[in-house]
Design brief:
406 residues, Rossmann fold, alpha/beta, Metallo-beta-lactamase, Chain A, binds flavin mononucleotide, binds fe (ii) ion
């Protein structure tokens, strides 16, 4: 006999008595925001809290996984939900709301005014079913209560965190999360979770370092035993992820150069190779990306700590190569704390390559070092110029104390 859907589709896990993970693991998803590769899939975490008088659900799931959430709730025999807390309106958490609200017709949707406005605009919920929550406001579920903390700009203007004080659990939605499908409920394999959380930080959170630092300070003042984000595993050692975020979002940079380059006929590649060796021999770490074949998430992650970015590009049709320009636009949008930058490349007869790249990076507070541009294949003098640029990078790194050895 073939199993019925609700016999094989439910996975719920108890975090503490009456507090359950009821979300969906998306093992197969490989792309997010039509931009970010998901090498390890992701999860949409949804949490059910059964109070003595009322039941609340924190965050829904992506529309593609709403049946998993509904089956999970059915398997627990949940007949009514009083409050659905929408911590963030992005569709990976709210896409399933419409169906959820049909299944639970007496549920009200709670969120920040901004979040509720977006949900109504996205046509995911009707105006008569929403209820705004203020910063610091509490709602009682009986013997315990939920407190809401407005936490805008991690990464949308609408985000709230939810604090279950009696159990010392903080629900943080995207903040502190990771795109990581795994069977562990908690971050047991910390090196693996660290890597994926850093990648997630780089792709989603990095542009918002000022808000992040503010929210981190606020969380440090609370008593938190468990951090429960809406993607990836939970943390029963909150210091692990809070310390990691504090480091990533700080102004401290590392002795690293991110070199992105593209080359049509090999000239810029020869320059890139020479430059990489010149940096290594001066004690500078290098991460090198061939822009015709790279992972956007890895590039973003490498930008989290690097002191310096170098863009390598030939001149094509009077400007920079589109792949180099794309990398510059991406870096500009992600706003890493990079301090120094330069450009290397090759040209035939002239154009505005240097201007295009420089002008694509207005958001970064960069000190530009003199570029090195060869005509056609690099000659001996061009290689010496690359050595000089490597000297200058090493000097800059030494001046700010990030090269430890001479
Ligand atoms: C499609 C194409 C368009 C080009 N357009 C320009 C240009 O507008 N200005 C220029 O100075 N060189 C131009 N060049 C010449 C290249 O910049 C030059 O060959 C350079 O050495 C290529 O570097 P690479 O080997 O790293 O690709 C063009 C080359 C190609 C293939
Ligand atoms: Fe989001
Ligand atoms: Fe999300």
């Amino acid at each position: 006999m073939i199993a019925k859907r609700d016999e094989f589709m439910s996975l719920t896990r108890e975090i503490k008595p009456g507090v359950f993970w009821v979300g969906a693991i998306d093992w197969d998803r490989r792309l997010f925001d039509a931009l970010i590769p998901l090498p390890e899939g992701t999860s949409y975490n949804s949490y059910l809290i059964r109070g003595s008088e009322r039941t609340a659900l924190i965050d829904a799931v992506d529309e593609s996984k709403i049946d998993v959430l509904l089956d999970n709730l059915r398997s627990m025999n949940i007949l009514t939900i009083d409050y659905i807390i929408a911590q963030h309106a992005e569709q990976d958490h709210s896409g399933g709301l419409k169906k959820l609200l049909e299944a639970y017709p007496s549920a009200r949707v709670l969120g920040s005014p901004k979040c509720l406005d977006l949900l109504v605009q996205f046509d995911l919920v009707s105006k008569d079913r929403v209820q705004e929550v203020k910063d610091g406001e509490k709602i009682a579920l009986g013997e315990r209560s939920l407190q809401f903390i407005h936490a805008p700009w991690v990464h949308w203007p609408d985000t709230i965190f939810t604090y279950l004080a009696e159990d010392r659990i903080l629900f943080t939605c995207d903040f502190l999360g990771s795109h990581l499908a795994m069977s562990d409920l908690f971050a047991v394999d910390e090196p693996e979770v660290y890597r994926m959380a850093k990648r997630y930080y780089a792709e989603i959170m990095m542009p918002f370092r000022v808000s992040i630092n503010r929210h981190l300070t606020r969380i440090r003042d609370m008593t938190v035993e468990i951090i429960a984000p809406s993607h990836g595993p939970l943390y029963d050692r909150p210091g692990f992820i809070l310390d990691a975020y504090a480091e990533w979002a700080s102004d401290r940079v590392k002795n690293q150069v991110v070199l992105v380059y593209v080359s049509m006929h090999g000239s810029t590649r020869i320059m890139a190779d020479h430059f990489v060796d010149a940096l290594i021999s001066r004690g500078v770490e290098v991460k090198r990306f061939d822009l015709t074949n790279y992972d956007v998430g890895e590039l973003a992650e490498s930008l989290v700590d690097a002191a310096t970015v170098i863009i390598g590009t030939p001149t094509i049709l009077a400007g920079a190569h589109p792949l180099a320009l794309y990398a510059a636009i991406l870096a500009n949008a992600l706003r890493p704390k990079t301090r120094y930058a330069s450009i290397i490349g090759s040209f035939g007869w002239g154009g505005k390559m240097l201007e295009q790249i420089t002008e694509a990076l207005p958001n970064l507070k960069l000190q530009f070092l003199d570029p090195v541009v060869a005509r056609g294949l690099p000659k001996e003098a061009d290689l010496r110029s690359l050595d000089r640029l490597a000297d200058e990078v090493a000097t800059m790194h030494r001046n700010i104390g990030i090269i430890k050895t001479h």
